Structure formats: structure tokens, C-alpha cells
Amino acid sequence: MSRYRKRWFQALVLVVLLAACTAIWYLRPYQPDQAAVVAMQGGEGITVIDTGDWIAFEGGETHDPGVIFYPGSLVKPESYAPLARSLAGSGYRVFIARMPLNLAVSDMERANQVLKAYPKQPFVIGGHSLGGAMAARYASDHTDRIRGVYLLGAYPDKPGRLKEAGIPVLSLLGSRDGVVNREKFEAGKKYLPDDTKYMSIEGGNHAQFGSYGQQSGDQPAAITPQEQWQQTAAALKDWIAKEVMR
Fold it and tell me: Which residue of 126, 200, 219, 242 pairs with 176 in a disulfide if CB–CB is 3.0 to 4.6 A?
């Protein structure tokens, strides 16, 4: 190999390595904190099963609908264990998706696996942040099995249009959410049904829908993570009882 070609090859290798390191740095996921690690443990009537594609939470006698959850962008699915565990304790079978690269946009159709495993059970689907947007897209194409959509610090885009889908929608937003673009959030309302239920969690922020610590760009919450999980779970259960299963 000539000296010129050798230098060119070395430069190319360096560029590739730098690009790889940048990608790895950028795609570093938010890790579950201690509360999430504890919530992942079975016991006290809650069974937790990790299939590799899903983390399933079930608590004794279950009833409809099942709950499918798409995680936020670059957030490990275990981070939503406290919320899932609370819902499972009320009798709902909850499935948190494991997404390639921890990005829901990489496998929007992942819910198909759960629907095939439980062909007779109705489901609601939703998620946090980007996960909510991708859940809305999935629901818009599967209204035969999806009975409702919930959005946590999230809003739909045009491919996730649900305005004429004929299913109820719940939208929860923390009053101190510093991540959601408020203009886009308001613009996204045109894709949702007129009777969408909008709720604000006073003092809540973006990251505390999960359990992974602070998120870049977010505002500090004025309530504890436990309070935000409790309010979120209560809102979901009330919505399911009054809007989804009425």
C-alpha cells in the first residue's frame, strides 16, 4: 500500500471511529433509577415477566382492557415499572415494549406481538413522549383491536391522526414539562377527537412519568415522582372505567 493510500485509509478509519463514538454517545439511554429497579421485582401479588421484547406486569385476577406502553425516546423500558406495577395492582395486564435502540420509531408495529398472543382481549395503547406519538400511529391503523389511546407528555402527528377513529383519547401533561414543545402540542390537537380528555398534572414534569432521574431540558418538578405516578395511574384507571369500557 502506498504512503498516500495508507494515510487515506487511516483517516477513513478515524472518521468512522469518531462517527461511531458520536452515535454511541448520542444514543445513550436514560437508565432506570432505584425506584424502577425495585418495581421490577415480582412479589406482593405482582408477577413481572421479561420476554426480551416485552416486560409484562400482571396482578392476580385480571380484567379488560390490556394496557400496551411504548417508552419515551432513549428511555429504558424498566423506567416505567412503577407506573406499570400500579396499574397491574388494579387488575390490568400491562406490557411495556422493548424497542430497538430504545426508540419507538424503530418498531412502531411491536404491539402486534401482544395482540397475537391475546387474540380475544381488547387493548388500550399509549406511551410517553415519542412513544406516545408512535402509539397513536399504531392505533390509527388498528382500530379493530385498540379501544383507546393515552398520551403522556406526548402529541400525535398526521400519521397518528385519531380524529375520526371512533376511540377515546386521554392526554396527560405535567404543568412543569420543559421537554414538550407547547406549540406542537397545541397543533397536534387537530389530529385528536373533539372529546379528547386533556388533563394537567400540577407540579409534574416530563421525566416523572417514568423513573429515570432528570432529563435534559426538563423543568424541576414541584411534586414527588410517587405523586406523579399515583395521579397518572388514577387518571388512566378513571378514563378506562368511564370512557373505554363504558
Answer: 219
Q: Do 44 and 25 share a structural domain?
A: no
Residues 11 and 91 in one domain: no
Q: What CATH number has the domain bearing residue 184? A: 3.40.50.1820
Write out the three cell numbers for 13: 478509519
Indicate whether 106 and 151 sit together in one domain.
yes
- Give kind and range of the element (H or E) at residue 174: strand 169-174
188-228: per-residue pLDDT in tens?
999 999 999 999 999 999 999 999 999 999 999 999 999 99
Q: Using CA atoms, how far apart are residues 82 and 39, in angstroms rounded to an integer?
A: 5
- One domain, residues 38 and 3: no
Whether the Cβ atoms of residue 30 and residue 75 lie closer than 8 Å to each other: yes
Helix, strand or coil for residue 103?
coil
| Cα separation, 150 vs 186, whole angstroms | 16
The whole-angstrom separation of Cα 30 and Cα 214 is 9
Do 55 and 159 share a domain, yes or no?
A: yes
Cα–Cα distance for residue pair 217/171, rounded to 1 Å: 21
Determine the structural domain holding residue 110 and report its residue range: 31-244
Rounded to two decimals, the pTM is: 0.89
- How far is Cα of residue 120 from the mean position of the Cα atoms in its chain? 24
Domain count, the chain: 2
